[in-house]
């Protein structure tokens, strides 16, 4: 059972963002599992322009010497007389892979129970963690023996798509929207994917021959961003893991997937992927993502207490860790199959 | 040309098929439809449920279907399972309330049946309905065809 947000996120820190010298400091100590900086604007959809000041929220500290800050700009966009609102959460790096599961739980809960639109940007998790899609089969996708030997955590998430191995270098960006929010967007996989690529085209602005290629974000024909979605009756979520940098050794835990995009052309992991850091500074990428979102949504701040807390609803998320027993059983089943055993 | 088209519409009537004037999504006459693009075929108290041709066309190649347990309760408008296609999981919502009496196990090995035969071999669950009155909340084939047309023309 996931902990409440107020337990998970005990500090709510925003300080002034200075373009030229902001830093990220070390993640939380014992008992503290992450930060949420929840920023968003709740705008009624009215046919008038409102000018909002830059809003700052002062930190409440619990003896932790780290800081993370986020600036929310009052980007009010009058789109056909309506201003869809978007709430931003920027989460600090966390210390345990369990936090990634909790983030996915929160995303799943926001998708299923919140009526707001959200953007969540997370700065990665410290330990390498394998994240499989909804229907991923471990025996087909993972080098299970190595995974078990090295005790690499494996998560099955609630969205579709493939398998990634994420670490402190990864940047996660998530959009959760009501289906009417983006004008003229049909709530199906391909239109949403196309919408997302047009947003990120504003971020990259022609850098590195960025484009969407068969559901991946690429520079040229090298993948640096993996996408996944979940679509309900009234909302959709589109989240992306961006390969800021990666440790080549971690790629060894993943097999070549059977269902690979055609443009991969059977290339191994290292020939197929590239590093976002070779194209853009990290802070620039995050700033430009916020800026791009601001061209389509109005951003608004809200109180931490207004964020949904897991234990206050009956919602049960489906994202979870796979146990060692499950992984071992999957490996054993494949071995039996290969030996022709029943 | 005119006689050819007349023959085609007579054949379509015999086969209980009505076709969009644009012609790329099939809607069957005897079924009822939900606005979330599921169909239901009712015989007495028994309902067979799947997703429509419009839905499978927009979702793309289905690679996995999450089925409920036999015996599970379903409620009109609520999700009972999901299909995975491309990079997305998409909820399947029940057009009627009742109890699941059978699931299409074939979909575990051949999820693409949802694409190739959405109204026949690609059925997803069978339900024993507990409130036939709910059917009035659903669309007939003509209304559903118009609904899909309006949806597609808006985007």
UniProtKB/TrEMBL annotation, chain A:
Pfam families in the cross-refs: LplA-B_cat
Transmembrane segments: 24-43
Keyword match Acetylation: no
SUPFAM superfamilies: Class II aaRS and biotin synthetases (SSF55681)
Keywords for the protein's UniProt record, in alphabetical order: Membrane, Transmembrane, Transmembrane helix
Coiled coil: none
Domain annotation BPL/LPL catalytic: ranges: 115-301
PANTHER family reported in the protein's UniProt record: BIOTIN/LIPOATE A/B PROTEIN LIGASE FAMILY, BPL_LPL CATALYTIC DOMAIN-CONTAINING PROTEIN
Annotated protein name in UniProt: BPL/LPL catalytic domain-containing protein
Organism this protein belongs to: Hibiscus sabdariffa
Lineage, uppermost ranks: Eukaryota, Viridiplantae, Streptophyta, Embryophyta, Tracheophyta
From TrEMBL, chain B:
Major localization listed first in the record, in broad terms: mitochondrion
Swiss-Prot/TrEMBL cofactor(s): (R)-lipoate
InterPro entries the record matches: 2-oxoA_DH_lipoyl-BS, Biotin_lipoyl, GCV_H, GCV_H/Fam206, GCV_H_sub, Single_hybrid_motif
SUPFAM superfamilies hit by this protein: Single hybrid motif
Residues of the Lipoyl-binding domain: 46-128
Subcellular location: Mitochondrion
Bound cofactor: record note: Binds 1 lipoyl cofactor covalently.
PROSITE patterns in the cross-refs: BIOTINYL_LIPOYL, LIPOYL
Keywords: Lipoyl, Mitochondrion, Transit peptide
PANTHER family referenced in this protein's UniProt entry, alphabetically: GLYCINE CLEAVAGE SYSTEM H PROTEIN, GLYCINE CLEAVAGE SYSTEM H PROTEIN-RELATED
Family: Belongs to the GcvH family.
Known role: The H protein shuttles the methylamine group of glycine from the P protein to the T protein.
Oligomeric form and interacting partners: The glycine cleavage system is composed of four proteins: P, T, L and H.
Protein name per UniProt: Glycine cleavage system H protein
């Amino acid at each position: 059972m996931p902990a409440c947000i107020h337990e998970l996120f005990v500090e709510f820190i925003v300080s002034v963002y200075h373009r030229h010298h902001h830093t990220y400091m070390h993640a939380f100590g014992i008992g503290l599992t992450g930060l949420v900086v929840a920023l968003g604007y709740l705008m009624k959809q009215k046919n008038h322009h409102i000018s909002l000041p830059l809003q700052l929220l002062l930190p409440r500290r619990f003896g932790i010497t780290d800081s993370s800050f986020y600036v929310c700009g009052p980007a009010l966009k009058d789109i056909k007389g309506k201003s869809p609102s978007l709430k931003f959460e920027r989460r600090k790096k966390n210390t345990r892979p369990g936090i990634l599961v909790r983030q996915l739980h929160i995303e799943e809960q926001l998708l299923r129970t919140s009526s707001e639109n959200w953007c969540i940007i997370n700065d990665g998790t410290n330990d390498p963690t394998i994240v499989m899609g909804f229907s991923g089969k471990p025996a087909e996708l993972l080098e299970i023996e190595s995974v078990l030997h090295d005790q690499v955590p494996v998560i099955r998430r609630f969205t579709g798509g493939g398998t990634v191995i994420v670490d402190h270098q990864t940047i996660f960006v998530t959009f959760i929207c009501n289906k009417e929010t983006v004008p003229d967007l049909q709530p199906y996989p391909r239109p949403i994917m196309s919408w997302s690529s047009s947003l990120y085209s504003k971020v990259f602005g022609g850098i590195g021959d960025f484009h969407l290629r068969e559901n991946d974000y690429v520079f040229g024909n090298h993948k640096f961003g993996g996408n996944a979605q979940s679509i309900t009756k009234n909302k959709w979520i589109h989240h992306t893991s961006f390969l800021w940098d990666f440790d080549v050794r971690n790629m060894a835990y993943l097999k070549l997937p059977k269902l690979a995009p055609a443009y991969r052309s059977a290339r191994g992991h290292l020939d197929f992927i590239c590093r976002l850091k070779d194209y853009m500074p990290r802070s620039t990428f995050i700033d430009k993502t916020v800026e791009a979102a601001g061209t389509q949504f109005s951003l608004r701040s809200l109180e931490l207490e207004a964020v949904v807390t897991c234990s206050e609803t009956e919602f049960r998320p489906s994202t979870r860790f796979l146990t060692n027993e499950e992984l071992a059983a999957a490996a054993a089943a494949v071995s039996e199959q290969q030996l022709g055993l029943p | 040309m005119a006689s050819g088209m007349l023959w085609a519409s007579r054949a379509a009537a015999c086969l209980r098929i009505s076709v969009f004037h644009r012609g790329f999504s099939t809607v069957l006459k005897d079924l009822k439809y939900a606005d979330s693009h599921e169909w239901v075929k009712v015989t007495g108290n028994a309902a067979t449920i799947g997703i429509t041709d419009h839905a499978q066309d927009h979702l793309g190649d289905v690679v996995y279907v999450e089925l409920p347990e036999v015996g599970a309760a379903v409620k009109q408008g609520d999700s009972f399972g999901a299909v995975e296609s491309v990079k997305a999981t998409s909820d399947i919502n029940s057009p009627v309330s009742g109890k699941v009496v059978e699931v299409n196990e074939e979909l575990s090995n051949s999820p693409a049946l949802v694409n190739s035969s959405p109204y026949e071999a690609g059925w997803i669950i069978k339900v024993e309905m507990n409130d036939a009155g709910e059917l009035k909340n659903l669309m007939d084939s003509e209304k559903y065809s118009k609904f899909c047309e309006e949806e597609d023309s808006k985007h």
